[in-house]
Amino acid sequence: MVWTGGASYALLTWLALLSTYLLLRAVEIETWSRLRRSGWFWGYVGVTCAFLTTHYYAPFLLPIHLVLIWRWLARHGERKALVWMALLTLLGAGLGGLVAWRVLSNSSGANFDDVPLRILLPDLLNAFTLGPSADIGMGWIWALDLLGGLIALLGAIWTLRNWATIRDGGWLLPAFVLVPIVMIRLVELIQPGYMNARHLSVAGGGWFLLLAGGLALLWNRRAAVALVLALLLTAGASYSSYAYFFGHDYQKDDFAALGRFMGRRMLPGDLVLLNPSASWRIFHYYAPLEYIDEYNQTHDQRQTLIIGPRAILACR
Fold first, then answer.
1. 77, 82, 50, 54: which is closest to 66 by C-alpha?
2. Maximum Cα–Cα distance for the chain, whole Å?
3. In the chain, N or C terminus with fewer CB closer than 10 Å?
4. Residues pairing with 274 in the sheet
5. DSSP string spanning 175-211?
6. How many whole angstroms separate alpha carbon 274 and alpha carbon 262?
7. Which residues of the chain have pLDDT under 70?
8. How far from 286 is each of 120, 248, 315, CA to CA, in Å?
9. Helix (H), strand (E) at residue 311
10. How far apart are the first and last CA of the chain?
11. Rounded to an integer, what distance in angstroms lies between the CA atom of residue 232 and that of residue 17?
């Protein structure tokens, strides 16, 4: 599986899983005196702080954590549980409000369209199964996406097969996937969010585990079938990885190559358009634009035209 757009999305997926695992281990401890001395508890606190500061959408997983904490508190008195849950809910709401204020104060999303479920769900299925660099428009790619979805669904059905498994935590992985999707839909009731599949990578870890669980269930019954399905999904993910690293359609942000290209071809009188403005420092670092600046500083009659963020027309 390949995540595009930066390492923070892979980090978000990892920290979402790790913080939830640490919390699960912490809530196995029965007494508060033992809990507060436990490495599981303090590990959860530390990792969750890192998790919540990794991405704006990290708080989408907090409802699941609140349920796990409430179940631990409920074992130690219903009234105390309600008080602590009220405080934790207020804290979570405060974090969510801070994120909302930060986003809305910059008018982020004001120019975006709402992403309907008919687009969001297939996009997530493709991104979580093979990776977003596998073109969903290709028939065999979509077939593998559906195959991965069916296997993950099988894993979810198995975790929810009866009340005993649900009570013992079988609800967790399906909720891990569904809750962030529900949360983004709630946010979009107020204002469309800046979002594509990688921004919901907070749900990716739950999906991978459901997919692995479905394959494990098949392996226990028909090992050969499970092996063939795993090889098919691996082949699709390998294709996605190859397309991301070597495919022409997915090449981006190679500013060093852009600088070499421009360095070989820029001539006096050329117009260089740099857009968006946020990338100016990157272009200035990789492209030999200092020669243009130096020329402009040493000639009285500069022939420089600035357009938009920064566009330079340099002439001798």
1. 82
2. 83
3. C
4. 310
5. HHHHHHHHHHHHHTTTS--S--GGGGGGGHHHHHHHH
6. 12
7. 1-7, 77-82, 84-85, 88, 92-93, 95-113, 194-196, 248-255, 273-293, 295-316
8. 36, 21, 21
9. strand 310-313
10. 51
11. 26
Q: Read off the pLDDT of residues 26-49 as tens digits, 9 standing for 90 and up.
A: 989 888 788 888 899 999 999 998
Identify the DSSP state of 273: E
Query: Any residues with CB less than 8 A from the CB of 76 and at least 6 apart, and which?
Result: 32
Length of the chain: 316
Element (H, E) at 285: helix 280-286
Cβ proximity of 44 and 19 under 8 Å = yes
Residue tagged 């660099």 (tokens): 133
What is this structure's pTM? 0.74
Of 275, 265, 285, the residue nearest 311 (C-alpha):
275
- Return the closest-CA partner of residue 64 out of 48, 41, 42: 48
Backbone φ and ψ of 160, nearest 5°: -110, 20
E strand or H helix at 117, and its extent? helix 117-129
Closest CA to 206 of 280, 156, 279: 156
